[in-house]
Amino acid sequence: MPEISIKAETLFHIGSFAVNNSMVLSSLVFIFFIVFGALYFKESKKSENKSGLYYTLNLMLRPLYNLFHSIVHDKIDVFFPLLSALFLWILIQNWSGLLPGVGSIMVAVREPIKHEIVATQTKNVSHAPKKAEAVGETKKEETEIKHIPLFRGNNADLNATLALAIVTMVMVQVYGIQFLGLGAYLGKFINLSNPINFFLGILEIMSEFSKVLSFAFRLFGNIFAGEVLLTIVAFLVPVLASFPFLILEVFVGFVQALVFSMLTSVFFSMAVSKH
């Protein structure tokens, strides 16, 4: 039975910084993302003879633009760069976790094992009164070799989805203050006109924090559960049985990216509205 870890496994350390398998795959996706974006930007500067890459990306981005425009309306030019980046980043991260070799290419990692040996007290044998000598603990360090996956889907790591959720909700507050002003925006949460509005404001503050958890755990739960399902099915029935589930996970990865970015656009729209 394959061993399934809910947290990303550490591959090596750079000083005191632990590099895990989620970071390795995420770094490769980040490089791909940057290169692709640079190529698209270069093609967009051409007045003619643009490549197929430019038109393919435009074909993908145009429906996204229209979708987000129906939610944020006249502020689409402000929000679209972040919304489209969130969608594409999450989508590529979700699909990269389904590539062949992710989760199946194993590397040997040496991990320390600490054994604690507590020494017994010894007595001083002399003509003087007997005294107990306190003897401290001694630690003996050994190592064992474990085989862990070289790559792990980034969104199957709760740290990654939590970081995305925090960045998203911070930007919600930033845009709210930018468009409404600090006083008007804080007035949505702190309203002393009557006791009901005061408690409603407290609930709104709690809601902002709960959105972070909702964002993080929804994305993590769906992607991690999908990868576990694929692992179990592939282990039980190795030949072609996991293919229908793989197609399902491709669809789930798309839906989760769309849900995350659409909810973000809704929160942006709510943050910049005066009422």
Topology:
Layout: E1 10-14, E2 17-20, H1 21-44, H2 52-72, H3 76-96, E3 106-118, E4 122-123, E5 132-133, E6 137-149, H4 158-180, H5 182-186, H6 195-236, H7 243-272
Antiparallel strand pairs: 1-2, 3-6, 4-5
Helix pairs in contact: 1-3, 2-3, 3-7, 4-6, 4-7, 6-7
Describe this entry's structure for a reader.
The structure is a single chain. The protein is an alpha+beta fold and 275 residues long. It has 2 domains: 10-106 and 153-272, no CATH class; 110-149, no CATH class. 60% of the residues lie in helices and 14% in strands. It is built from 7 helices and 6 strands, in the order ββαααββββαααα. The strands form 3 sheets. The protein has a two-stranded antiparallel ribbon. Helix 4 (158-180) runs antiparallel to helix 6 (195-236).
Overall average pLDDT: 84
> Strand order within the widest sheet?
1-2
Shape: globular
Ranges where pLDDT stays below 50 over 5 or more residues in a row are 117-126, 130-136
Count of spatially separate domains: 2
Proportion of strand residues: 5-15%
Total number of strands: 6
C-alpha Rg (nearest Å): 27 Å
Percent in helix: 55-70%
Main sheet? 2 strands, antiparallel
Keywords:
275 residues; alpha+beta; two-stranded antiparallel sheet
Gist of the model:
The chain has about 280 residues and is α+β, with helices and mostly antiparallel strands. The chain has 2 domains: about 10-105 and about 155-270, no CATH class; about 110-150, no CATH class. The chain has helices at about 20-45, 50-70, 75-95, 160-180, 180-185, 195-235, 245-270; strands spanning about 10-15, 15-20, 105-120, 120-125, 130-135, 135-150.
